Amino acid sequence: MCLETLQNVYYCYGEDKEKLIEEAKEMLRTLESELKGKRFFGGEGIGFLDIAANFIAFWVGAFLNK
Asked: Which Pfam families does this UniProt record tie to the protein (predicted)?
């Protein structure tokens, strides 16, 4: 869901874009809180969620540069 929201931010404008940005920020805060000082979501080893989060990081950069 986070990736879809970030993609929609890239293609929206105005008030819709601002609403989606706030939604994305909240989702990213949730992901960040799950790390809780760990290197990876699973603890000390890389897992599926870490790989999926990498794709989210790509879209964050894409919508920040637009």
From this structure: GST_C
